[in-house]
Write a structure and sequence with these properties.
This protein has about 240 residues and is mainly beta. Helix content is about 10%, strand content about 40%. It has a 7-stranded mixed sheet.
């Protein structure tokens, strides 16, 4: 099991940490001490790739990524397929201790230990107690928010008559290489609509998520459409129009 990150964070701390988003439009990649770090809400653990850092001073403490939980070549080949160059993956064991503001329009991301309060943010419940963060779409479907997913996925099939607009080759830590057509749709969350390009998961993955009563995996589409606030300590998601 990956050890918990070091660095004491107390309720009285109100520090804010700012990072520039790297030029990876489908992913949340930041650079710290010369290391490229992928922020992935779909991963429960933080780990380093081969040659990656064993200790990173960030977020007011030290994060010590564990060893890769998969064979080295499996991960390296997968990230190469995605066109990603990262030294470590930062998962929920670290991300889940902070409130994050992701703003693609300005290319910045901030983490804070204090509650975020600002005008114009639509707040809704965010459940990340027992796994990846989950929100409820306006139509009642449960959606996993996976910042490590460049493509969104619809669970349990495609609407009758829907026509694919393209095809992609994706890769997942759990499911390996995924080759899928992609379709266009519009989802609504907190009363606001946003466009998604979604694919189909392999049958086993789709069945598992359907059994968990999950309707969607929503990835980069959400971060392209809004300024996104992931307030893990207070269990809420905030969306604000860009601009």
């Amino acid at each position: 099991m990956n050890p918990q990150p070091k660095g004491e964070i107390t309720e009285s701390d109100t520090e804010t940490f700012a990072f520039d988003l790297m030029d990876d439009p489908g992913y949340l990649v930041i650079q710290v001490q010369g290391h490229r770090l992928l922020l992935d809400t779909g991963s429960p653990f933080t780990f380093r790739l081969r040659g990656g850092p064993q200790d990173i001073e960030m977020l007011g403490g030290h994060v010590r990524p564990g060893k890769m939980p998969f064979p080295e070549t499996y991960l390296e080949d997968g990230f190469k397929l995605l066109g990603l160059q990262v030294d470590a993956l930062v998962g929920l064991d670290v991300i889940g201790r902070f409130s994050w503001e992701v703003d693609r329009a300005t290319g910045t991301i901030r983490a804070t230990t204090a509650p975020t309060e600002a005008e114009g943010i639509a707040w809704m419940p965010l459940d990340a107690q027992d796994g990846p963060p989950i929100v409820t779409l306006d139509d009642g479907a449960r959606a996993i928010l996976d910042s490590g997913a460049a493509v969104s996925y619809r669970v349990s099939g495609v609407p009758v008559g829907a026509r694919p607009v393209a095809s992609v080759t994706d890769w997942s830590l759990l499911w390996g290489t995924i080759q899928t057509p992609v379709w266009e749709s519009t989802l609504r969350l907190g009363g606001m609509g946003f466009p998604v390009l979604y694919g189909q998961l392999p049958a086993e993955a789709d069945s598992n998520l359907a059994w968990m009563q999950t309707g969607w995996i929503v990835g980069a589409d959400l971060f392209r459409a809004f300024r996104v606030y992931l307030d893990f300590p207070h269990g809420r998601l905030g969306l604000k129009a860009l601009g």
